[in-house]
Design brief:
One of its GO terms (molecular function) is oxygen-dependent protoporphyrinogen oxidase activity. It contains 18 helices and 18 strands. The chain has 561 residues and is α/β, with parallel strands linked by helices. Among the domains are: 49 residues, no CATH class; 209 residues, FAD/NAD(P)-binding domain, CATH 3.50.50; 120 residues, protoporphyrinogen ix oxidase, domain 3 (Orthogonal Bundle), CATH 1.10.3110.10. Strands 1, 2, 9, 10, 11, 12 and 18 form a 7-stranded mixed sheet that branches. It has a 7-stranded mixed sheet with strand order 7-6-14-15-16-13-17. A two-stranded antiparallel ribbon has the order 3-4. A hairpin with a 2-residue loop joins strand 11 and strand 12. The structure holds flavin-adenine dinucleotide.
């Protein structure tokens, strides 16, 4: 630069541009001179033609994509596959968005907590954020708003059953008899049951209406009359299969406990991983986004690539060379990544169009996955304006029959420490879902008004001041619904796609479970699948090479003689 300005008298503001232009021309020259002899080195290639070569390209940086990238790269040093994780948005984390402000509020715009599992603990430990974990007090009950009152769900069974007045005595007896198998009609033959049908058959109508219906609305934003029991609540559905008495849930649960104990014995969690108590909910001090942020940081530190604002545009299967071509729209134009394996963890609705040219059936299956709209609204009110100022629970669910539009309210400041200044209670409200899609047509002011009305009906004193609004986010396509025929119409089609197109995987919360913990588990399981795919690929290419060289030697024998 100094040379340019002295010799040519170029002014300081022109220097940088001129220098960059010259550097670019020199790079082209070097690449051009080398190209015919030895082919372009991949870095020059990517500079000139925006091409990048990696082993695995992970599309989407939500919990599924981030955890997959983590498990592909962690602990293997130089042997780890080279990974590029590409994300359409400007930040990593997908649905997981944690916010804070300078007044001491920390809140979530997507999921609010996770149920700890050994795999979630392992991931937090390996990502270096075990110290950041926070757990909610496991004795905090969820509450249900019923006939004008909040009623806690029992946490200690059977003791709490006597004080628990959300169910009537006939309702409790029906649920108890059903759960033990003393009164539990058999499942219908050749018919997939909805959550509503399954729960009503096992536990009775009252238990369904007052507990399970609000739970399904609050957690899945779904309609239990449409959701498949087998696909949506797989673990509970399986209890029926395990059960040794009339397909009832309690005998099934006893068998499951034995299974869990055996699994733990055979595969004990590493003592270095953080521990947790049953029933605890978890998060991180500064919110759930701590996890994807830490993973992205570690990936970059270890020489892998994390690219934001890279939107997948198209995929091309391997032709002459072995690699898939993955084309992205980026702020720097179109960029092609060549990868031995690709995993799309973007939502089903974002992938259907992209794989349509490859497989119309799989594309149609992806387009069928329904995602209803949900708004998440975080508000704070002074503690003094609450009927129960200490909010002793983790939140309240509002059954649809009770005419409160909010599906459920998480009492964020009761769950985790330091979420707001001590004089406030912080509430995260979810509103909308598949039985209230009109939420997407409301203005933010109208949504806030609905939320405030719900809080006043359930939690606040009549003279409570207006809410302090911290965050309001409308998710137009929030949570994938596992409706009836999810298995044959969607999952089977995706299995067929993957066997037709080796090296291209589709996954995420529409396939292996929507809970945060399911997405972490997907990351671990999928990483194992990809590793064995890559191992087989390199094995078969070694075999191919040695066969080719054998043939060449044999063919050369007469000539050399
Ligand atoms: C409002 C809400 C509340 C929830 N609450 C809870 C909760 O409390 N507890 C719980 O366990 N679970 C909860 N869930 C569910 C859970 O958060 C999600 O299932 C999980 O975070 C999904 O992770 P994912 O990586 O599979 O998908 P996503 O988070 O959707 O990630 C997919 C990523 O792909 C990116 N992408 C899309 N298109 C492209 C493209 N063309 N190119 C590149 N990238 C692309 C997206 O930008 C996104 O970052 C909630 C979900 C929502 C929406």
């Amino acid at each position: 630069k100094r040379y340019l300005s002295k010799v040519f008298g170029i002014s300081s503001d022109m220097r940088s541009t001129t220098f960059l232009t010259l550097a670019f021309l020199v790079q082209i020259g070097v690449a051009w001179i080398h190209a015919p002899q030895q082919g372009l080195h991949s870095r020059q290639k990517s500079f000139l033609f925006a091409e990048i070569n990696v082993d695995v390209c992970v599309i989407g940086s939500g919990i599924s994509g981030s955890c997959l990238a983590h498990y592909l790269t962690h602990d293997d040093g130089d042997k780890a596959p080279r990974v590029l994780m590409a994300e359409a948005r400007a930040q990593v984390g997908g649905n997981v968005i944690s916010r804070k402000n300078d007044q001491g509020f920390i809140w979530e715009e997507g999921p609010n907590s996770f149920q700890p599992t050994p795999t979630v603990m392992r991931t937090a430990y390996e990502a270096g954020i075990a110290d950041e974990l926070v757990f909610a007090n496991p004795t905090l009950p969820p509450w249900v708003f019923w006939e004008g009152k909040l009623k806690p769900l029992p946490k200690n069974l059977p003791g709490d059953l006597f004080n628990f007045d959300l169910l009537t005595w006939p309702g409790k007896i029906r649920a108890g008899l059903g759960a033990c198998g003393l009164f539990c009609p058999p499942p219908p033959e050749d018919k997939e049951e909805t959550i509503e049908e399954f729960v009503t058959r096992h536990l009775g109508r009252e238990c369904f209406e007052r507990i399970i219906d609000p739970f399904v609305s609050g957690v899945y934003a779904g309609d239990p009359a449409k959701l498949s029991m087998r696909s949506s609540l797989r673990k509970i559905f399986r209890l029926q299969t395990l059960s040794f008495f009339n397909g009832a849930l309690v005998p099934g649960a006893l068998i499951r406990f034995q299974e869990i104990a055996k699994e733990k014995e055979q595969n004990p969690p590493d003592p270095k991983w953080p521990t947790y108590k049953p029933g605890e909910l978890g998060s991180f001090r500064e919110g759930l986004q701590t996890l994807p942020n830490a993973i992205a940081h570690n990936l970059k530190q270890n020489g892998h690539r994390v690219e934001t604002e890279w939107k997948l545009k198209s995929l091309m299967p391997p032709s002459q060379h072995n690699d898939w071509s993955v084309i992205f729209d980026t702020p720097n134009g179109s960029i092609t990544v060549f990868a031995k394996a690709i995993v799309c963890t973007a939502p089903a609705h974002a992938i259907g169009n992209i794989i349509k040219p490859l497989d119309n059936d799989a594309a149609t299956a992806l387009d069928k996955v329904y995602y209803p709209p949900v708004a998440s609204v975080t508000v704070a009110y002074p503690k003094s304006s609450f009927k129960m100022p200490d909010l002793p629970g983790f939140g309240n669910l509002n059954p649809r029959s009770q005419n409160i539009r909010t599906l459920g309210t998480i009492w964020s400041s009761s769950l985790f420490p330091n979420r707001c200044p001590p004089e406030y209670n912080l509430l995260l409200n979810y509103i909308g879902g598949s039985r209230d899609v009109a939420i997407a047509d409301l203005t933010p002011e109208q949504i806030l008004q609905q939320v405030d009305t719900g809080c006043r009906a359930t939690l606040l004193k009549p003279d409570a001041p207006p809410p302090k609004l911290l965050g309001l986010k409308l998710w137009p396509k929030a949570i994938p619904q596992y409706e009836l025929r999810h298995q044959p119409d969607i999952l089977d089609k995706l299995d067929q796609f993957e066997s037709k197109f080796p090296g291209c995987y589709l996954g995420g919360n529409y396939r292996t479970g929507v809970a945060f913990g399911d997405c972490v588990q997907f990351g671990l399981d999928q990483a194992n699948t990809i590793r064995s795919y890559l191992d087989n690929l390199s094995l078969s290419s070694t075999v191919q090479q040695s066969t080719t060289s054998d043939v060449t030697e044999n063919e050369m024998v007469p000539t050399s003689r």
